Amino acid sequence: MTDWIARDEARVWHGFTQMSTYSDNQPIIVERAEGHELIDVNGKRYLDAISSLWVTTLGHRVPELDAAVVEQLGKVAHSTLLGNGNRVVIELAEALTPLVPVEDPRFLFASDGAAAVEQALKIAFQYWINQGITTRSTYLAFGGAYHGDTVGSLSLGGGGFGTDMFDPLRFPVLRAPGFADPDAFVTAAKLLRARADDIAAVVVEPLVQGAAGIISAPPEEFAHLQEACDDTGVLLICDEVATGFGRTGTLFASERCALTPDIMALGKGITGGYLPLSATVTSGRVATEFLGEDLGAKTLYHGHSYQGNALAAAVALRHLELIEEWDVLANVRARSEELGAMLDAAIAPLDAVKDVRLEGLMCGVELHPGDKNGRRVCAAAVERGVLLRPLGDVVVLMPHLTVRTEHLERIVEALEGAILEVCP
User: Fold this and answer.
1) pTM of the entire structure?
2) Predicted local confidence at residue 195, as pLDDT
3) Which of 29, 106, 219, 271 is spaced 20 to 30 Å from 299 by Cα?
C-alpha cells in the first residue's frame, strides 16, 4: 500500500485534499469492488458507507448495469448532441419525463452536478433577457447552501470549504437564513416579494442541505417558497444533485416538499455511480422562451463536448428501471427506520455526540468540536473496515440504497467503536 500511496501522491492531485499531508491521513487505494464493499490493492475490504461520495446507489459491479454499458459499447460510446441526437439519450429523457416533478420537462445534459447548476443559472438569466426584461439578474440562495465548486455554483454557496479566497470571483446573491433557522422560508418568501423585480430565480436544496452537515427542514415549510414564486414569477430552481434518485425515500426530495420547480439540477446518483452524467431539467414554459430564429439571439449558446454521453445515458436508463423493479424506495424507507433506531440506541447517547440527523439514507452525526475529531473518527472507522467521510465535525453516513440490515449494524458498530476510541 505504501508504494501505491507514494505513486499516487507524486502524480495525482486530489480534490478537497491537502496534498502535503495526503499520505499522513492513511488513504486507501482501491483496486476493485464487489457489492457494497471496496477492495484495496492489498485485498482488504471496506464497506462503502458513503456511496463513493453519494453517487453509488445500488452497489458496485451490479450485473444489470455492467451489461447495459457493454451493450451500449456494441453500438456507440459517444456522439455529439450539439445539433444532432442519439437514440439512448432520447430514451433516457423520455423515461425521466413522467418521473420528474417538472411540467412538460426538457433535459439539457452535462457531466456533473456543478455543471447542471451552472446551466440552470444561465438558463434562468437568459429566460428573462429573452423576454426583454434586463432587471432580473439576481439570485436568492440560503445560508449553509452548497451547489458546487464552479464560479457560479460557488457564488450560490453559503461559504465554507475555503471558498472565501474566491470572493473576488463570486457574484453577490441575496441570502436567506440556513435550514437550521425555523424562519428560513418565511424570510425567503419575504425577500422574494420585496425584491421580485430584481430576482431571476431562487435556488434551494429540497429537504436537506447535504454539505452543510445533513441539515433538514420540515417539508411543509417549503410551501412558503413555492407560493412566493407562484405569486411573483421568480423561477424556482431545485438542486437535487445530492437528494435525487431515492436518497431521501422518494425518487426526488421535491416530492416530499410538494415543490414544482421550473428548473431542476440532477446528478450524482443518476447513473448509479457508474459514469459522470448530470442534467438540467426545465419546464416547457421556460424552454419556450428560447425558441426563435436559427442562430438567433434567443438560442442558448451553451453545451459540453460530452453532453449526453451514450454510455452514461444507457446505464442511467437501466438504473431507473432497476429502482422500480427492485422497489428500492421501499428499502430506503425501511432501512432508514432501522438506522434511526440503531443510532438512537448506540450513537446518540455518547458523550462526544452533539446531534444525530437522518433523512432517508442521508445521515450526519455531529460531534462536539475537537482536534480534527471528524477526520480522526473516520480514520478509526476505516481501520474497522468501514469507509466514512467527515464534513468538519460531522461524520457522514451515506450507505447504498440497497443496503441491508447487517450492513447498517456493521456501520453503527464501527462508528461507535471509532468515537469511543478517538473521543473517550
Assistant:
1) 0.97
2) 97
3) 271
